[in-house]
């Protein structure tokens, strides 16, 4: 039964990890598309500040997203580390809120969202059409991020994670290099199962007690 539970948990973890990997890739592509749309915005009569900020967001969020939430998610899935789960929820939650703001598209934020694209139709239709693409992609990214957060939280609760456990990992330093699920399971099995001889020993002849 324990093996079946571990197998199902591993399958769910693999699916969520694949989702987070695809999400990270799509978000980076969205930032590249946003640069092109901000350039079209600038050419159509908008502010060049948006184009400069769009480049900054790509340079900043691509490596930071990988280090700050993608890697903690991988470590959390690999070892059921409550500390890495907490780091993921905190940083990824901030990333989700930022993506929602990017999807809205306030002017001067360096993001071509819905508000910026729709209001720019009265100025330049061609540029506004380009600006719709990152608006759609930011919206899809935000929805996928919300789904990812809910699924990761389900795994976190199912693995018995807690804030107290995260504090213990921080105090002991186990969050730096936590053991994998396989290592934990091997230690559990090796320390818990008694050893028995493979062949029983019988008394010779008929000398039974």
From TrEMBL:
Residues 1-18 form the signal peptide. One of its GO terms (biological process) is protein transport. Residues 183-192 have a biased composition (Polar residues). It is a multi-pass membrane protein. It is found in: Membrane. It holds the Pfam family SCAMP. GO terms for cellular component: recycling endosome membrane; trans-Golgi network membrane. Keywords: Membrane, Phosphoprotein, Protein transport, Signal, Transmembrane, Transmembrane helix, Transport. Its main location: membrane. The chain crosses the membrane at residues 21-43, 49-70, 82-105, 125-150. Residues 176-209 are annotated as: Disordered. Probably involved in membrane protein trafficking. Belongs to the SCAMP family. This is Secretory carrier-associated membrane protein. It comes from Anas platyrhynchos platyrhynchos (Northern mallard). The gene is SCAMP4.
